[in-house]
Amino acid sequence: MATNMPKATVAIVGMGWVGGVIAAELTKAGHDVVGFERGKSRSTADYYHVHDELRYANRYELMQDLSKETVTYRNNEKITALPMRTYGSFLLGNGLGGAGVHWNGQYFRFLPYDFQIKSKTVERYGAGKIPEGMTIQDWGITYDELEPYFVKFEQMAGISGDPTTVDHVGKMSQPFPIGPMKQSPAVKLFRDAAAKAGFQAYTMPSANLADNYTNPDGIERAACQYCGYCERFGCEYGAKADPCVTVLPVALNTGKLEIRTFSNVTKIVHDGKKASGVQYIHVPTGEEYFQPADVVILASYVFSNTRLLLLSDLGKKYDPDSGTGVIGKNYCYQVLGAGTTAYFDDKEFSTFMGAGALGATVDEFNGDNFDHSELGFLHGASISLTQTGLRPIANNPTPSGTPSWGKDFKATSIKYANRSLSVGAQGSSLPFRHHYLDLDPTYKDAHGLPLIRMTFDFEDQDKNLVKHLAAQTKKIADQMGATKTETRDAMTTYNITPYQSTHNTGGVLMGDDPATSAVNNYLQMWDADNVFVCGASAFAHNSGYNPTATVGALAYRTAEGVGKYLAKGGSLV
Question: What DSSP string describes 15-64?
């Protein structure tokens, strides 16, 4: 039997970016918060002088233990799903700060088109442009309504970027608080080549500080050292914005936040209309506890948010056959694979140096910034060149035709170790009726609870997007003066084995209609008004960008909504 704990005002499940932002805002307002994190605690001191590629990048020090809990995967319903036992396609963060610790810091606001994608598509092209089975829908909020919350996140995190926006992205009411990062020779070459190709490139907005910064909460952080150890690593300087060096210290300093690490929440306890709290397991001992709370906030990763609702039988489970229900609907990923690599015989670059968000981006082919009338896909991709730091174990670029072993392989590897640059496209992922998340009927976690199952494959939409965007990357790479360029323009069946992106979205959609969404635009559940479900699980599709900016903005809006709910109760819309 679970041990009852003293009642809390707010219980937050997951202490990454979303949980940290909400905890900081609510505790500053005087509310008592208990935060649950199933992993261990972390601080900057954990990363002092630990540039260990093997430990962090290859052995996944910061990631979830897949032998204890994983996901199962299948391409379609005719296939039996199997567990992901080794890391490949995406990485699942674990511990205080979550994926906010091991991200690269690439920061992009979603486009105005993204939030009204269905209505804007129908308005420009007609309903017939949307393929059969594609389930795009508006988000129940506009870019202009969300824009002030982007500003809040940017001021807190110290986002570095160009002082003015370019033509193809959303308008900003305030500039980024810090100017852009340094421009390396490789990044300058890309920007010059993009201009020659007729495109407008801009410095990638970055959560790696371009200068020393003190945020509105008084948190001081030092500038980026361009060491090249961002993705899959914690930042030893605190220069990369993460929850452990920004929002969590603010919340803890109020004395209103209690963080319980090694605490795995397994159930939301509810009566069908309201939640009374959460049940959790203290992982080291296996003891069960019940935490009563006035408000329950799910702030975990996409898979965990969806799984916890399904395990708790809260909300209407999605049925792909009828298209009804919402929990598990519109799982989306990211469409990668389009790109061109340029190999140089007469130029050498210091590609071993860099930062997670050191780069430049072109957006002419993102969202609906170009005419799709004669194209076999919707949306698009951002095109970028990044210099994130090519570490020696995982990076070994060689042109096609190079032997895979032996003397010639070694010589070519050494030659091009710092003589290749990649122009890549990060494409949107749009939902289809038969792409969804549910509970696996066979496989269970270490506690005996069903694993989450993903059913997903690439569609003609994705393959057509990759082919078209690859041609645009080639136009830029061909202007860079390389000895040779090689373009990747084809994709086949989705394979969970190779790493692609940790940008998973969907499962607990936001919207303005309870029939097609699980939460409103404050991320408050339609079916239980004291439950808020936050993060990329609310995305009705994935854009041609990294999701963190939009996750952060929605977290600030949710914090505001929870404050309103605690003051008056009831539905917020």
Answer: -SHHHHHHHHHHHHTT--EEEE-SS----GGGGTT---HIIIIIS-TTB-
